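ZP: hey, is the adenosine-5'-triphosphate complex queued? I don't see it on the tracker
AM: it wasn't, my bad. submitting now with these inputs:
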Amino acid sequence: MNSIEVNNLTKVYDSRFKKNAVTALKDFNLNVESGSIFGLLGPNGAGKTTLIKILLGITFPTKGSASILGEDISNYNVRKKIGYLPENHKFPNYLTGPEVLTYFSKLSGYENPNLNIRIDEMLALVKMDQWKKMKIKKYSKGMMQRLGLAQAMINDPELIFLDEPTDGVDPIGRKEIRDILVDVKNQGKTIFLNSHLLSEVELITDRVAILNKGIMLREGDVKELTISKELFKITIKGEPDEDNIKSALQDFLISKLEKNIVYVKLDSSDEIDKVIDSLRKNNFSILSVENQKNTLEDMFISLINETEKKI
Amino acid sequence: MKNILTLSQYTFREAMARKIFLTFFAVSSFVLILFVILFVSVSIEEMASMISVNGNEAFDFISKIVEVMKIAIIAPLFVGGLFLSIFSASSFIPNMLEKGSIDLLLSKPVSRAQIILGKFFGGFAIVLLNIAYLVVGLWLLIGVKFNVWDTSILLSIVMISFTFAVLYSLIILVGILTRSSILAMMLTYIIFFILSPVLLLRDKISILIDNVVVEYLLDGLYYIIPKTAELSNININIAQGLGIDEYQPIISSFLFMILTLALSITIFNKKDY
Ligand SMILES: Nc1ncnc2c1ncn2[C@@H]1O[C@H](COP(=O)(O)OP(=O)(O)OP(=O)(O)O)[C@@H](O)[C@H]1O
Ligand SMILES: [Mg+2]
């Protein structure tokens, strides 16, 4: 089953002057499977926040349709089962942490006779229990973010949208948040994540989509995306001539060549034998062969660069 | 319904948390204290001797002085109370529409109409409470001092709050359209202090200018714009127990309020945040 389905979604932000209109999303399609962690990646202004806002009825689509938890997005009642942490969120600053959670659980229509216990649990989960009496206006950025996460989970939602959840949080806190998210996923909930921190996304997401200028560039399993083309680092003994290496490996894709170190990109790891054979045939002696897995970040950067060139 | 209630409740809390409403209460309390001091330091006999009447007419005199006092209190109360209320309510909508707050609010299972109505009733409730505090306080003081327990002054609470509700609907509309509390406040003050009193004199102005177009324009404006000047007169009359001789200003202002709220909801329903 899919928790989110998006069909041909287009969003144009109109401007008083036609030429300033921004197409934030263009014919966007997406399905997010229930019970998974999905990461939406993309550079600043790619349209990530816009997508979440449309799904939650904050902004309206120009064209196309979408549903969450099987209901059309225009049905606001479905949001009872949704949690949301907006980017740069603001809470009523005259309230304390527990009061904020009470307020938003009421607005979410969340019924729980033991709400106070739930609030305490949530505050403990995000390590905010020692600041229960402090007013929001005195919070630091990381504290705001932690309370924001608690807020997004207070109503025990089925589907949680998080826009840059670790923004402003210290490294230990980020690890804690990742653990919380994995935990929540293991309870069968779906998490939709917007982030720039690719190394983090890589650690917890099941699937990712990469978006640039409102257009979906790629979508898939994190593992598939990062290993699809394998990169090998081969170190050659001595000080070999670069041109000789190139001619020896002319059937293969060399992604980088630095003195005695050559990086080759292969379609499958089985081909590495052939690479070594070619090098040996040309009398190079090999010091080491290492499998360089692409990080999500490498993949992201090269993908974005490729498309930037085309446009 | 529950959503509207929750939203009103928190609008109320927001107002309480802001110093401006404390100021409102402080000013009201200050006015009440002034009257306590006045009533304690000046005896009824002294007041009577100031206007030189003899004992037989004492009862008549008391009701007369209470009448005068009521007029002297009610008219400034209307202006002052509304001035402060408009000032304090003008930032509700722009605050709510701030980036980061509105996103969160709209992501909850609440309709946009419920949000507007929640803000409306919350703001209304706090003004009602403030005005009631002041008017009931004055009523009690007058009652204790002169032993005159005339409830018609309490009707002022209804009239002032009603006038506020009408103006508040405009504050909400301007807030939704421009996100500017200053603009909402200015426009409301202009109607309250200038347009409505001027339009009340439109017959005289028409005679002066003697131009059919101007006449129609003034007439048109008169019927569109909330008639706060007339509501103020009605307020003075009912506070004296004189009743209401013309309902048109009340009905047309009420219609203005309903239409303005409906328009606010319609516009809010279509806006991207
Ligand atoms: N309310 C708005 N009015 C007009 N244009 C907007 C509005 N909101 C966003 N945009 C534009 O839409 C595009 C996408 O913005 P969006 O906020 O979705 O990007 P994002 O991917 O979330 O970026 P970031 O990583 O910086 O948060 C940008 O060009 C932005 O300028
Ligand atoms: Mg964003």
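AM: back. Chain A has a mean pLDDT of 89.
ZP: great, adding it to the tracker
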